[in-house]
Amino acid sequence: MKSALTLICIVVFAFINGKTESRDDGYSFIKEGKNVCLFYRNVTLPNGEFTRELKAECIIRGTKHSILEHLKSQEHLKLWMQNIKNVNVLKDEDSKNWYTYIHYGLPWPLNDQDCILKFSLIENYNGYHIFYYAVPDYSKKENDVDRINIMQGKWDIRSMPNGYCKVEYTVATERNINFPRWAADPFVHRNLIESINSLKCHVESMGIE
Questions:
Q1: Quick one: DSSP state of residue 94?
Q2: CA distances for 180 relative to 54, 110, 138, angstroms
Q3: Distance from chain centroid for Cα 33
């Protein structure tokens, strides 16, 4: 028990300490809250638009299988995702490819937004890489909702000792030209941190499988 506790302390210290050190992946630290660290880097989208890619990192006590279930199951998604009005898993092509519809509820004066994402899973010896991108023409959008045409990112889930996983989530989207970044960023950052923390809490409430 003592050795397990020591290992956990080392892992947590390394994770927290690592956020302030120079990173070789091009990301810069934004903030930390609710056991989630948030970073950004500048990227170019497929349409040539220059934007920010956000990355959220956290440690979750749970198995990679449990975390994956929370990302694929419609019932679980509705429990942990924040500020959404609807989420539906539309289609499973197979166990490693699926489509999900998400309707985001945004604060005034922004219109609500929705997107349809295609997910593709790659499994390795100690975790999962899940890549996703928007497929805006997959289905017709509602009249009072703005469709997100470009959105891309990935989930990285890596098993660690003693029943823990490190989870990294990245996302980059086209900018909303009707709302300046200085006004949108606080909401986006807060929502991302709250969603990842909610995922962590829901996975951990299920215990180790």
A1: E
A2: 17, 11, 29
A3: 15
> Per the structure block, which two tokens stand in for 80?
């942990």
The angle at the Cα of 132, spanning 139 to 101, to the nearest 5 degrees, equals 35
Spatial distance between the Cα atoms of 7 and 163, rounded to a whole number of angstroms: 11
- Measured CA to CA, the distance from residue 80 to residue 138 in angstroms comes to 25
Q: Convert 105-173 into a string of H (helix), E (strand) and C (coil).
A: CCCCCCCCEEEEEEEEEEEECCEEEEEEEECCCCCCCCCCCEECCCEEEEEEEEEEHHHEEEEEEEEEE
Strand partners, 117: 100, 134
How far apart are alpha carbons 196 and 56 in whole angstroms? 8
Assign residue 84 the CATH number of its domain: 3.30.530.20
Q: Whole-angstrom Cα distance, residue 188 to residue 209?
A: 32
Q: Yes or no: say if 168 and 57 are a contact pair by the CB < 8 Å rule.
A: yes
- Number of C-beta neighbours around residue 34 at 10 A: 13
* Residues with pLDDT less than 50, the chain: 1-18, 20-21
Which tokens sit at 137? 């023409």
Total domains present in the chain: 1
Distance CA 86, CA 103 (A): 5
Close Cβ partners of 91 (under 8 Å, ≥ 6 residues apart): 98, 99
Give residue 93's identity as a one-letter amino acid code.
E
Query: Which domain covers residue 162, as residue numbers?
Result: 2-20+28-205
